Amino acid sequence: MSAPDFGGALRDRFATFRARAYFATHGFGPLLLQTLADLDDYRRSLALRNRAVETWYGRVLEMRELIAQLIGAGGDEIALGPNATACQASFAAALVPRGARDAIVTTDLDFPSSRYLWRAQVRRGFRIVDVPSRDGIAFPVDDLVAAIDERTAVVALPLVAYANGALLDAARIVAAAHAHGALVVLDAYQAAGIVPIDAHALGADALVAGTNKWLSSPSTGLAFLYVARAVAERLEPAFPGWFGHADPLAFADDYVPAPGARRFELGAPAVDAIYGARAGIRFALEVGVPRLHARSQELCDRLIAGADGLGIRLTTPRARAARGGMVCFDLPDPDRVVDDLAARAIDVDTRPGIGMRMSCHPCNSDADCDRLLGAIAELHHARAAS
Question: pTM for this one?
Answer without folding.
Answer: 0.95
